[in-house]
Structure formats: C-alpha cells, structure tokens
C-alpha cells in the first residue's frame, strides 16, 4: 500500500471518528490516534528518510495538508461539544432573575420543646401553674428536702455532677416542688419542665443531659385516684391514641406510696428492642403521693394537706411520640434529624 492511500485512509477514519464523537474525551482520543506523538501520521513522518527527494516533497505536502485539516476539524468539533454542554448546563441551571429571593430557611422547634409545650398547654387548661427552678442546685433542695439525706441509698441511684463549691447540677426537676411550695404554699397545682443531668453511661436510651417535667398537686384529701386521672389524661392527649400502660409499686423517697407507670414500647410494640432493653416496656412516669417529710421540709403541715407528684421523662416521651430509637439524636445538633419535625 503506497503512502498516499495510507494517509487518505487515516484521514477518512479520523473524520468519521470525529463525526461520531459525542464527548470531548472521544475527540481527544481521535486526535491522539492521528496527531499524537505516537499517532499514525507521526509514524509516517518518521519514514521520510527512506523516500526520494521528489517523493518526500510530495508526501510531505500531502501530510501537512491532512494534519492542518484534522487540527481544524478537531478544534471545531471540540468547540461544538463545549458549546452544547454549556447550553445544556444553562438550561438545567436556569435561574429566573425576576423571581423573589427565597430568603432564610425557616426553622422549627426542637421535638422535645414541641412535646413540652403541648403538655404545658394541657396542664394549664386544667388549672396548673408552670414553674421553673435553677439547674445548678444546692444539696438541700436536690436531696435533703426531698427526703434523701446524705446516708440514704437513693443517692447511689443518681450519679451526680458535683461542682467545686459544693453545689451540683440537678439530677431531677423535683427540687422545684419544694421551691414552689415554699414560695406559693398550698393549695398548689404545678408543673416544672426543664433539664436534668446525671453522670450516666450514654447509650440508645440514656443521656447525661435530658429533659424532665415534674408535676405536683397539693390540696386537701388528694388520693391515688386523682393521680391516675391526670396521668391518663396526659397520655391520651400526647399520643392521640390508646397506649398500653402498667402501674407497679416503686420506691422513691419523696413519695409514699410510690408507683412506676410504664408504657409499652412504641418503637417495637412491646416485642423488645435496645430502647426498652428488650423488655417491651419503657419507664415513663414515676409517681406517688407526696411523702409527709417533703411537705414538712416545704413548710406545709401534712396533717392538713396532702398531694401527689410525678416525674415525666420528656426526652423519652418524645422518643415514643416520634418513633426515635436513639436518645442521643436529640442532643446531636444534626439538622438533618431536626428538620424532620
């Protein structure tokens, strides 16, 4: 095969490849095949030393003509593909400059805050007052006034964050009971939502920082029936459906008698999961009648007044309400999680 025919065939092959090329990568591959350092036309140039002077001049002119034509066509094909890609991008990323700006993305309340506000509204509608108390507490209000003296075994049940000045981060919201009675006196119906802190090992159902809601009613002739009524009203309002609960004896120094109100786990429907520790039940509402010793510490005569008290885990309630299987998500600050509520 003579060089003229070889060059013509290479020329035709590259032109066909350029015509079919739909990407810049394909165009570049055709360029390298023909014009690259080891390309087919470059290999022909290396054979010029074997040609006669007249033949070398003629083939050289033909080769240069083909190279110039291919370079021009490659450049044109690249420009066409780049223009098409830009047009497609402009179409897909088109922005209406006359449209109003979207503005800042609206936020939302934290799921625990949403549940807390619902409960506050419910109890306020039943005549309760919403009280608050300090998160940095004294030993007196956090333990002593709640019938938990220094040698009481109940202190071992609450791993406390102690501060250097002898104060502590409150382990529950129960101190607000005493502060509320001291300030307002009986009769009193109050709830106290807020943060509590315990030096716990963190897992799917335990956190070192969590939210509780304390509730108390002190009046004359308050009974367990009053307690059960308010607890049933609370649960039906929060879950908007029937839930399975159980009331069992429980020990808490600040109530006597004391009860544990458990709710059947709504994550696993009672079958067992990490949230309920495979038991099918979640402790939700420790409660009972106020211990007379607590009333005395609060300056209230237990011969004249009595009442009930309960402590609700707001964070756990939010887990049950929204089907969240890991308590750590609530403090994670992950916007992907929080934007779901």
Concise synopsis of the structure shown:
This protein has 341 residues and is α+β, with helices and mostly antiparallel strands. Helices cover 41% and strands 18% of the residues.
What is the gyration radius calculated from CA atoms? 40 Å
Helix content: 40-55%
Elements, N to C (H/E): HHHHHEEHEHEEHEEEHEHH
CATH topology of the largest domain: BirA Bifunctional Protein, domain 2
List how many beta strands DSSP finds. 9
Describe this structure in words.
- The protein is of the alpha+beta class and 341 residues long.
- The protein folds into two domains: 3-92; 111-338, BirA Bifunctional Protein, domain 2 (2-Layer Sandwich).
- It contains eleven helices and nine strands.
- Strands 1-4-5-9-8-7-6 form a seven-stranded mixed sheet, sandwiched between helices. It has a two-stranded antiparallel sheet with strand order 2-3.
- Helix 1 (3-20) runs antiparallel to helix 2 (24-35) and helix 1 packs parallel to helix 4 (53-92).
- 32% of the residues are buried.
- The model has no long low-confidence stretch (mean pLDDT 86).
């Amino acid at each position: 095969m003579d060089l003229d025919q070889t060059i013509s065939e290479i020329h035709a092959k590259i032109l066909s490849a350029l015509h079919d090329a739909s990407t810049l990568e394909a165009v570049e591959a055709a360029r390298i095949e023909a014009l690259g350092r080891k390309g087919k036309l470059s290999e022909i140039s290396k054979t010029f030393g074997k040609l006669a002077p007249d033949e070398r001049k003629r083939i050289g002119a033909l080769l240069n003509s083909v190279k110039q034509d291919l370079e021009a066509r490659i450049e044109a094909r690249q420009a066409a593909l780049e223009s098409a890609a830009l047009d497609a991008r402009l179409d897909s990323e088109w922005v209406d400059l006359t449209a109003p700006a979207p503005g800042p993305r609206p936020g939302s309340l934290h799921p625990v805050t949403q549940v807390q506000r619902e409960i506050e509204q419910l109890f306020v509608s039943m005549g309760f007052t919403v009280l608050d108390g300090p998160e940095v507490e004294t030993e007196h209000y956090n333990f002593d006034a709640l019938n938990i003296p220094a040698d009481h075994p109940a202190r071992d049940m609450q791993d406390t964050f102690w501060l250097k000045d002898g104060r502590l981060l409150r382990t529950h919201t129960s101190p607000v009971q005493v502060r509320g009675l001291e300030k307002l006196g009986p009769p009193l119906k109050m709830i106290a939502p807020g943060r509590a802190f315990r030096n716990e090992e963190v897992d799917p159902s335990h956190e070192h920082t969590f939210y509780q809601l304390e509730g108390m009613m002190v009046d004359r002739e308050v009974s367990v029936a009053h307690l059960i009524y308010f607890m049933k009203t609370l649960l039906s309002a929060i879950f908007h459906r029937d839930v399975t609960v159980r009331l069992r004896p429980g020990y808490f120094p600040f109530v006597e008698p004391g009860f544990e109100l458990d709710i059947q786990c709504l994550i696993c429907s009672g079958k067992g999961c990490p949230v309920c520790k495979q038991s099918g039940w979640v402790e939700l509402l420790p409660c009972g009648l106020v211990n007379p010793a607590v009333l005395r510490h609060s300056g209230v005569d237990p011969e004249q007044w009595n009442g009930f008290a309960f402590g609700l885990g707001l964070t756990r309630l939010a887990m049950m309400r929204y089907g969240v299987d890991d308590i750590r998500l609530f403090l994670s600050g992950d916007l992907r999680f929080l934007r779901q509520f």
